[in-house]
Amino acid sequence: MHFLEYYYKSVIKYDLINKFFYKNTNELPEIKKIILNFGSKNTKIKTFAASLLALELITNKKGIVTKTKKPNLFLKIQKGKPAGCKVILKKALMYNFLSKILIEITPNIKKFLIFKKKYKNFNNFSLNLDNKKLIFSELKEHYHLSKTLSYLNITIVTNAQTKKELFFLLKSFNLPLKTI
User: Fold this and answer.
1) What's CA 33's distance to the chain center, in Å?
2) Helix (H, G, I), strand (E, B) or coil at 51
């Protein structure tokens, strides 16, 4: 069992029960999955290969290429063309990546992760990391990848019902959040 999973089960669950009212313990919010996504503006094979390699270096799991669902004439994007690469992390890989965020990334971020009040979907939280700074230690060794990578979108999916539950859950894992 990962130490963050143990921390969630032994400490955060009891804090949630004391702070909020639940009729059933299955209603307790928890982190379900983490989705890592490299979006791409161009459709060159070099960009997708670099994105897939970077995702595999960061997570030790192979990524998949995402395709567009709808055409966009303004952006000259056809339906079914590659749009980016993503990896979905669950269970042990999710907690490993969350610990990597807490140990490697958040000490290097000078600003707090901003939690906007206009946020409508309460069961997920997204943040973007610019790869030009080479935040991940795995990517520092492969500097040539940073030239082709765009920003990394990290989405943390939970089953929280309210914004307060989501904010409390993420703050419990010591993510540096700030509301505006």
Assistant:
1) 8
2) helix
* Amino acid present at 37: N
What pLDDT shows up at residue 51?
86
Conformation bin of residue 76: beta by default, left when phi > 0, alpha when psi is -120 to 50? left
Between strands 177-179 and 113-115, the pairing is: parallel
Tokens describing residue 36: 């890592």
CB 63 within 8 A of CB 113: no
- Give strand pairing partners of 156: 34, 125
Sorted by sequence, the CB contacts under 8 Å of residue 13 that are 6+ apart come out as 25, 28
* CA distances, 175 to each of 38, 120, 125, 156, 163 (Å): 22, 20, 12, 12, 15
Q: How far is CA 70 from CA 36, 40, 63, 75, 143, in A?
A: 21, 16, 22, 11, 34
What is the predicted pLDDT for the residue at 120? 64
Q: What is the pLDDT of residues 82-136, one digit of tens each?
A: 788 999 999 999 999 999 888 887 777 766 555 554 556 678 888 877 765 557 7
Q: In 40-81, where do the E strands start and end?
A: 64-67
How large is the average pLDDT for residues 150-164? 87
